[in-house]
Records
---
Amino acid sequence: MRLEIFDSTLRDGAQSEGISFSVQDKLNIVKALDDFGVAYIEAGNPGSNPKDIEFFEKASKMKLKNAKLCAFGSTRRKNLAVEEDKNVVSLLKAKTDSVAIFGKAWDLHVFKILNATLDENLSLVEDTVSFFKKQSKEVIFDAEHFFDGYKANGKYAFDVLDAAARAGADVLCLCDTNGGATPTEVFEVTKMVRDRFSDIRIGIHCHNDTGCAVASSMLAVNAGAKHVQGTFLGIGERAGNTDLSVFIPNMQLKRGYTCIEGGLTKLTDTAHVLSEICNIALPSNKPYVGASAFAHKGGMHIDGVTKITSSFEHVDPALVGNTRRFLMSEVAGRSMVLAKIATIAPELSKDSHETAQIIKHLKEMEHEGYQFESADASFELMVLDVLGRFKPHFKLNMYKTSGEFPSPDGEMSASAMIKIVVDGKDETTAAVGNGPVHALDLALRKALCVFYPELKKVRLTDYKVRVLTAEHTTGSKVRVLIESSDGEDVWTTVGVSTDIIAASWQALADSIEYILYKKAGKI
Ligand SMILES: [Zn+2]
């Protein structure tokens, strides 16, 4: 019951709109995926650009614990002998033990894109796979557009697999390149291939254009596939690829397969590391790894989860390294606030004087326009404050911000000056930013890093402003929500004021206090 996980974040994932990896980004991704325990990491084509050559040189020196690196390229060109085709030969420069070779499996592509005959395409496949087998490489043959090809000309799609198999391919990977096949089609076609090629590993490579890539890959396994390709966060061209951060826990926790070496407890952390490197926000509703994946809001749900966790959770969040959260909201009611308080101050009973004080203070702040539903970090600090356990790590003496138009320095249109006191020592700094809040954040952290170097890693990852109308509060105010991250944790804080900078300051100050408390083990 083992599946081979083939991660293509660095190759198909790099095709996503808005994604661009530096060589160092790629090396960091290799390390994260290897630590997590995938079997293969597909890492691009060394012939395609100098960046990839540099990457493979550096990557070949890395000591990987679990993963094999794999270079990717196409079958030889039509009018060239395989050993004269520079693109084919360049794959050898990557010095990987495995290569993934894609070839056409849809007759339409053979005629219209390659301008070749059907037989010519078969020899492109056979020659190229043979070439790499003679070099003692493991060859994963990616049959491009296999499912569309099967529908258009089933016999020919199988002829292409035959050609690869004759030449000694180790894996026949069926690619739904356009992403339009349904899970049942994938199951049926994969099963036919499995029956025909019973002694070769069968692979599956799905795109998510119908939102079914994970489901299709799961059904391909039902049909006998043992090798599954995807990208770690499902990133990829158009709607992306099979999301391995969902597929892997589905197969391990629900179906009893072993997909990765080591436990799944690194799953959520790996997702955070990857989203940081890819510079994309991890959607909060992403299964297993999102911040909301185990967040409970409705009062009855929270009541149920507090009694028996499995009553409203499909798996224990700890299995995938995520955590259960109780969201603040009027719907959730008192039991939720109590559950939340219990995580911070377990010694308080629901009838204690302090609990009543916290709830009273919470109501007053909500009336002022604060909302703690997603601002867990500010809520926790508020509880510590009411209990008299909050001792600020710094004191603000003054700040001053200014903006300029036109900007004197390209994007940097604002500056901030700040004076703070830590343990009786004054620190004054200034910074420029692309807006007053950005400048203020940079100046504050610059001042504090002198005392708390661990803050160097902290960054703002999201900033939201909401204008509060009369129904929310008594005056015209804004509510600012700031999401911060240090690459490991993500936390959200809130500020409310009639002045947008003052509201942002409160959320910034809370963000810094929270992580300092957390690092000190006091939250
Ligand atoms: Zn693909």
---
Amino acid sequence: MPRTLFQDEILTGIPAQLPEAKPYDKAINHAPKRKDILTKEEKLLALKNALRYFPEALHAQLAPEFAAELKEYGRIYMYRYRPSYKIYARPIDEYPAKSRQAAAIMAMIQNNLDERVAQHPHELIIYGGNGAIFQNWAQYRLVMQYLATMTDEQTLVMYSGHPLGLFPSHKDAPRVIVTNGMVIPNYSKPDDWERFNALGVSQYGQMTAGSYMYIGPQGIVHGTTITVMNAARKQGGSPAGKLFVTAGLGGMSGAQPKAGNIAGVVSVTAEINPKAAEKRYEQGWVDELHTDLDALIPRIKEAVKAAKPVSLAYVGNVVDLWERLADENIKVDLGSDQTSLHNPWAGGYYPVGYSLEESKRMMADEPGKFKEAVQASLRRHVAAVNRLAAKGMYFFDYGNAFLLESSRAGADVLKADGTFRYPSYVQDIMGPLYFDYGFGPFRWVCMSEKPEDLAKTDEIAVKVLSEIAANSPEEIAGQMRDNIHWIREAGRNKLVVGSQARILYADCEGRTQIALAFNEAIRKGEISAPIVLGRDHHDVSGTDSPFRETSNIYDGSRFTADMAVQNVIGDGFRGATWVSIHNGGGVGWGEVINGGFGMVIDGSEDSARHIREMLFWDVNNGIARRSWARNSGARFAIEREMARTPGLKVTLPNEADETLIKNALQ
Ligand SMILES: NC(=O)c1ccc[n+]([C@@H]2O[C@H](COP(=O)([O-])OP(=O)(O)OC[C@H]3O[C@@H](n4cnc5c(N)ncnc54)[C@H](O)[C@@H]3O)[C@@H](O)[C@H]2O)c1
């Protein structure tokens, strides 16, 4: 078959001739200008670093262009090198490749950068304001070329978006090893990220952005649904007519209104950026957009009275919304926030009282003043939340560092003993009910990109889970029921944005049995192409994050990161097709270590072996750690696993008597 232009361009990598300059497309949502952090000397270094991707003959032309980008945007993106083809997940057979595994990874990269999926696609930012897949377009081009030419006996090594190169390995080794933002701990502050990123030597990979595993807002919907559902249960009675108020219609936060509808509540989500709000509205992820609080308040009252699920959005600042709700004495049942507070000083949180444009200008030109405005806004934000919480609202931190940054801003968010007034969703819901039992955000992507293959996988997953649920112990029966309900409804809820992907919270047994059944269906030709298995880093074992994933670890070890590091090392030699380890995913640089994997399954015996060996470790190492931390659900789960798995022998904690300890210290 003759090669397509798409294939040609990938195989060319960085062309010898200068490609046409690309106009700056104003219709696209662009990353905010980054702050001017480099010294004069460092700027020379940044330029020199950028030019090392190109032959010397092009330097005279590229140097002033890159210098202008650095000045204008605070980063060198190399816009000229954006490819001329449209980026989206094509079926696996359309990639030029010697390795099917590498072709699948190309498809995943293409999906991350799809304009319908990525937040700031031209700056290679996938979600969360600064969650990058690559630092610049030269890296993208080189990586695609390496993937297109590599074999199953090579491994591509990725340093924060930069491809170090292909190294000989073997067919059971990962095809790609990704590290993002790995820095010496003393250089892990937000400004260090600004500096290293501007120099072109490090990047913030978020969780699924820099690890090629982002599947659009669906990736977070299931987790958000079970969180909202369980939060509503805490308030007692039916979810119908309960009011849930939150903020953010961005990459992941955009899942909230959809989750609210599925959980059966009335939701109001504030979003300051009209482009983000309109995108979610057009995609059918939020039902109504409102710009006027005077009109929104009666609409909220009407919706609560009707007690039917509906998702309303307020296009404006969430602090204005909270204050108005408190002033009007509206009964809010559930409250949360998903602004990007993991990135408070560079566009993650917009302070009340300033327009979007004014904030963007201030964060680049007057960073000190901007920081003060954010902190003042957070103090007002918390004050309004506190007024409603005093009247019975259940407020929870949704893992965006809201409580952490509010406390740093001096907001009234701490109890007398120095702990937060409000729980994180992991402490109350996700940790004890899900992670401790091994339930986490398992996902898969059909490499044929055919909706009928996805429908077939849904069908298989329902069958497998129903069989397992028939014999599930009482401790996990409810979770199994919710998950079966979710997967039955998934097709109807039209969750796909970008590639044909599905998320499903499942435990080790569920993940393994579902994956083996997929593999068998591929072998028999019932599913027409390979499948990529993976997960969010936000899982049982993948992430050490003291205020989020590991916030329900109470033995003092939540500030250690052994689990996340061990997890990735173990996945790497048990059959993952690619692994990743990152600094900062979800809550910000320096605050967390997180990792994940991707696994291509193709119906072979090798795939079945990888599934059994790797998924077992990937879930159970975290359960073992949670059990050692004395979490009762995890203790139950790991003892159950040991009883049925020869070769598994985990150190179990002995419980000490509280009075005995107190007396000993007197
Ligand atoms: N724990 C989880 O499972 C989980 C899930 C989703 C998101 N998160 C966290 O939530 C945050 C949001 O993630 P995202 O991918 O949606 O990020 P995002 O940057 O794409 O979206 C955040 C949105 O909030 C809006 N916003 C900021 N300040 C605002 C304000 N004052 N009023 C109204 N809107 C405002 C922004 O315009 C933006 O669209 C991140 O910190 C992420 O790590 C956690």
